[in-house]
Amino acid sequence: MIKSVTVTNYLGESIKLELGFPEKSGFLIQSITGLGPPKADIHKTEVATNDGSLYNSARVNSRNIVLSLKLMYQPSVEAMRQMSYKYFPLKKRVVLLVETDNRNCYTSGYVESNEPDIFSNNETTQISIICPDPYFYSSDKGVAVFYSIDPIFEFEFSNESLIENEIEFSNIISNTEQTIYYQGDSEVGIVIIINAFGPAENIAIFNTDTNEVMRIDTSKLAALTGSGIIAGDEIRLSTVKGDKFLTLLRNGIYINILNCLDKNADWLLLSKGDNIFAYTADSGDTNLGFRIEYQLVYEGV
Length: 301
Hints:
mainly beta
């Protein structure tokens, strides 16, 4: 069951439309269309000598969300009509966050129309939003961490030397393989964050199920920045469609190192179910802290 829809306009201003308590916002949601899976186009080729046709490809169309709202006397119908212009401005981008019993997800789009029925005893308005990206995304990010810190300091303790560091407070445990169980409806890109505790050479990241691999050439990195991977470096690799990048954070400065990626790299994606990822390095793999961030993608609410 849908509980509420939160609208955020291009200025970052938000209003929450609760279905059970419309008096809080002044807008009564009568209906919303376009929250289910959008329509897909199936491209096929007719063959004269065969029955039926041959499948070529498929694509998902843009989403069109239409909200039918009744304007309440909060403080007046005219004030609420004008408020709808504020939160649903024509041509501008808005974000819709939908809260249901078992998921919170959002999508963004552009306001196509806002058509109030002004000359009516019960004034309403119909708002159409075109979403070029047809999917909904989870509000929270999923994180898979390949390393952990094992605390080993305990009382009572003794330090036999005043010069050397003999007390060990914790131990970094590094795993080179991790399984991610993805519950979304459609494939999604990931953001891989690599933190370097020391030098490492030539990192390779695998999807062991599909045998896809992405490699980072540290010799190219040394030619670009003056050194390979060193302690304190943070590498971010995104395979998200429309937002792919490879950057290095060193000494507080972000550097684009996309040309250090192997030209035959496979852009790794998460698919529904178990996804097993692993990484290796020619040397220094134990000096790497590795984690993957992702969002769940839904075809509909």
